[in-house]
Amino acid sequence: MKKPWSGRFTEKTSEIVEQYTESIFFDKRLWKYDIEGSIAHAKMLARQDIISTEDSQKIINGLMEIHEEIKAGTFKFEPELEDIHMNIETALIKKIGEVGGKLHTARSRNDQVALDFRLYIRHETKEIIKLLVTAEEVLADISEKNLTILMPGYTHMQRAQPILLSHHLMAYAQMFDRDRERFDDSLKRINILSLGSCALAGTSLPIDRQYVAELLGFDAVSENSIDSVSDRDFAIEFLCNSSILMMHISRIAEELVVWSSQEFSFIELPDAFTTGSSIMPQKKNPDVAELMRGKTGRIYGSLISLLTTMKGLPLSYNRDMQEDKEPVFYVVDTLKLTLKALNQMLINTSFNHKRMSTTADEGFSTATDIAEYLVKKGMPFRSAHEITGKIVRYCIDNNKNLYELSIIEYRKFSELLTEDIYNFIKPFESINYKKSYGGTAPESVRQQIENLKRKLRSYKIRENSPIL
Ligand code: ARG
Predict the structure, then answer these.
(1) Fold of 14-105
(2) 0.85 exceeded by the pTM?
(3) Which end of the chain has fewer CB atoms < 10 Å from its terminal CB, N or C?
(4) Which helix (H) or strand (E) holds 354?
(5) From atom 11 of ligand 1, which residue's Cα is the shortest distance away?
(6) pLDDT digits (tens, 9 = 90+) for 95-137
(7) Is 277 a catalytic residue?
(8) Residue ranges per domain, the chain?
(9) For 110-359, CATH number?
(10) Which CATH superfamily is 367-425 part of?
(11) Closest CA to 426 of 393, 446, 445, 404
(12) Does ligand 1 have an atom closer than 6 angstroms to the CB of 83?
């Protein structure tokens, strides 16, 4: 098959080279964006009298036919034609004849691929944002329904203080909300038109980039043609945001794994989201959560891979940059599926209220409340800490719980301890007093849930009406 760039060459491309350089097996995924960009470009060429309106219309009709063929699965992608851009252009010329060759006027694959990739990442960023909003809503709903359920809060994986289950879950909702904001903010850097930069230097033809930007819903036109064809920071930023999000998902997945263990027994994962063992009939394994944790490795790897590809590339376009797509495609597929699985898994997980609440009561979890009690009575915190430590030691030695000590025993440690101490050392009381902003008291957590829900209600994803 004749290459669009064959003019200068006397020898046929080696088969090894064709195999080595082709990207069609993965970049065919960009077909829709490639066609959209080409339609906008053809419209602009006619509007600027660079080609005739008639030619432009023929090109657009041809592109629409190709669109239908690809959609229907009847289009034949040719590896010899390297990539999606040359596959579509060649098919167009075959379909409408020589006039199809006018489409590539004032354009190069360098600005074209940057355009396609931006359109693709713009679309997928919004898809991920939508799934993230659902994740936040799911967490907020579960938190609302379980507002009075206690659990032990941990630091260093040791029981620290009683908290509300909803407070713990809302911590993840806050993380996801920042992830959503990060993706949303990145849109303004993604949504910039690179087309019209041509190979690297712009063109002598009278193009109108602003018009193309309007047609494709871009916020702005890139300022520097060299920069536009040679940077992939928008893709790196996408991978970076995805890595941070996946790190958060991996942490909640880890909690689900630990909480569903017999040792914890805090939750029961839905049967539909667990798997059995081929040898041990009693087992119910949290494989989905484990894979979420596990897949995080390749997501980070994708970020590192593109950062490394880009590092040290001289300006402007270099073929190395063709390696930008596969990591992004992998991340998009994995992240979307992971978020869908996470949302479903969370909705269908049941929480073992009794077990969580009982555990919240164990392990001297309200010791800090005794120290704060003494502080409220005027004792410096350091001394209060010391005395409470001694009380805990005494409990351990005498095999007692904090509220099993008599007031006489308490008063041996400090005269400031009076009968009302028992109102502070039960887990639920302990929680009720933590009314500080962002704290674990039910009213604070309710406020937090409301604030997030309000924020989500007023949030709108910026829509760009696509050409197709
Ligand atoms: N397939 C190429 C890529 O993904 C398209 C750009 C090719 N440009 C070139 N000058 N060979 O980067």
Answers:
(1) Fumarase C; Chain B, domain 1 (1.10.275)
(2) yes
(3) N
(4) helix 353-360
(5) 319
(6) 999 999 999 999 999 999 999 999 999 999 999 999 999 999 9
(7) yes
(8) 14-105, 110-359, 367-425
(9) 1.20.200.10
(10) Fumarase/aspartase (C-terminal domain) (1.10.40.30)
(11) 404
(12) yes
